[in-house]
Amino acid sequence: MNIKGKAKKIIPKSLLNLRHLFYAWLGSVIYRWPSNKIYVIGVTGTSGKSTTVYLLRQLLESVGYKVGALSTIEFCVAGKCKLNDKKMTMLGKMAIQKYLRKMVDNDCKIAIIETTSEGRIQHRHRFINYDTIALTNLYPEHIESHGSFDNYKKAKLDIFEYVSKCKKKNISLVENDNKFEKISILNAEIEHKKEFLKFDFDKKMTFGHGGEFVPVNINIGKDGLSFAIGEHKFKAPLFGEYNVMNISAVVTIARSLGIDWNIITKAVSNFRGVPGRIEFISEAEKEHNFQVIVDYAFEPVAMAELYKVVKILQPKRIIHVFGSTGGGRDTDRREKLGDFIGKNADICIVTDEDPYDDNPQDIINEVAEAVEKTGKKENETYFKIIDRGEAIDKAIKLAQAGDLVLVTGKGSEQAMVVKGKLVPWDDREAVRNVL
To answer: The Mur ligase C-terminal domain covers which part of the protein (predicted)?
Structure first.
């Protein structure tokens, strides 16, 4: 364990979080309170946050807005984007305020910030003057980090409460409007929606069944998805039923900004695929007649959703490269992932993901034990390969025409965390190098 890791174990979490609070305040002062000069949309939830931010940025840019966006996937300022190489969603040490200042200086009108529960605990959202907050969904996850689902839910509620109390701005996106409204956007299908609706917002909008914007006539096929909201029909070259909800969130946010329905439907039809989210590596099918998908799914709910897409593709065999993270993340997901993938994939290759300070072989063994209990035989239908590159190489060499290789857990991430250090890594490039 490195010095930083040891310090985190010794110093009380509350004191460490006070340091984050200080940096949040200092950054806002040094960069001259940039969030007061730009419309700020926060996106939170258990899953779908990054995709929602990515798609919303595309839509707003297609309308003509200059936009900035910060997410797990990428950092963008006025059309210039780079993949997130920090292994962190909400950046610390004044970085968020620095990006907001860049957005303002580059005449961006809107900033979209993926806002996490862990970021809330560490005060990384503080001194950001939000205008809108959207919740994609809510279910048990990150329990080891928060201690319980109630604590996790409370962190999300705290974000909503914080935004509801942010100061209104005397600037507007719309002519003849002199103040931004405070708006909440909520997935109406979550069990605890009443708790989120209690906060004082100027406007409260909901999507999903039981909400204001309800997706119906949903169709998911090999070419993408289609659905309708009221009389408005949508088509998008994206996969997965969960993306219907992500797009519904984007549509709701767009309508909250007064964007015309026809403009929204056209923008949705032009959506590009999201990096590392059901990303097909085209070289595999072109050159070898099998498919490779790289996806971010790292927990059981997301994995189950991914396999719904896999079922539509109807591959001959599924060869799945996966692992589980260390660093105190939810360890109970290891057994669940091993069990689920062991039952649903034809060949499982268990490998390293992000061990942090843990022993990667111990994590692999724990996952593999669950795989073996499903009836898989070691070195026949499942393999333990600690080196992720070698694991991907093995999967590609095993693949035959009509097969599907899944590589999950990291998506478009640009690094692995090993003993406190960021080791450059990209699953997509690793696949291409083997092909």
So the answer is: 276-411
pTM of the model: 0.94
Across the chain, which has 435 residues, the per-10-residue mean pLDDT values are 57 78 97 97 97 98 97 98 95 96 98 97 96 96 85 97 94 66 96 97 97 97 96 96 97 96 97 96 94 97 96 97 89 96 99 95 98 98 98 98 98 95 97 97
Per the domain annotation, does 4 fall within a domain? no
By DSSP bridging, strand 39-44 and strand 421-424 are unpaired
* CATH number where 377 lies: 3.90.190.20
Q: What pLDDT does residue 1 have?
A: 53
Instruction: Return the pLDDT at 135.
Output: 99
- Residue 344 domain-assigned? yes
* CA 271 from centre of chain: 17
Task: Note whether 299 and 226 are same-domain residues.
Answer: no
Question: How many structural domains comprise the chain?
Answer: 2
What does the pLDDT read at residue 7?
54
- Give the structural domain span for 212: 9-269
Residue 17 forms part of a structural domain? yes
User: What phi, psi does 82 have (nearest 5°)?
Assistant: -140, 145
Instruction: Specify the pLDDT at position 257.
Output: 94
Mark whether 257 and 323 lie in a shared domain. no
Q: Which residues of 35-74 are buried (b: 16+ CB within 10 A; e: fewer)?
A: bbbbbbbbbbbbbbbbbbbbbbbbbbbbbebbbbbbbbbb
